[in-house]
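Holo prediction — zinc ion.
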Amino acid sequence: MKYCSSCGEDVAKRIPDGDDRPRYVCNGCDVVHYQNPKMVVGIVASQEHKVLMCRRAIEPRKGFWTLPAGFMENGETTMAGAIRETWEEAYAKVDSPTLYRMFELPYINQVYIFYRAKLLDGKYSAGPESLDVQLFSEDQIPWSEIAFPIVTEILHEHFDDTRKNEFPVRISEVDPVWQRKGPKQQPE
Ligand SMILES: [Zn+2]
């Protein structure tokens, strides 16, 4: 950040009175510009043991497969954001999403929250940010073309959970090494 969004003056990074870490503080109007983590929300949408996936039409990882997900907007709940992203990217409607998975990525200041849900009417098609949308069974998943390691992780968990018919909510912290190396690459 270089300029104050309130008055346009330069900002400087310093610890405000009573605070314990550096913030961008305006040299003109003294407003403190707090920066906090961003939330990414998405859905593992399934139908008869198949999972809905989107082939990305945009960078990063254009052409690779992911789950419908995106940044939460102001004024919406995490569930509403996840439902909105599933519609925008896959033109799919889901029935009664349930909280399923949380990843914390403190090294890039992001938190991912995924719900799981059944497809409502079985309809789906590619939205503007997707090249293609498909329902994949476990043996149809293009495992070598997954956009992000956390997507591989959550897919393995979801297929395992589906076999057991138990869907515990899991939370894990992702670090840069995990992100680069990724989880196991093949289904067991
Ligand atoms: Zn200012």
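READOUT: The domain at 1-35 is CATH 2.20.70.10 (Ubiquitin Ligase Nedd4; Chain: W;).
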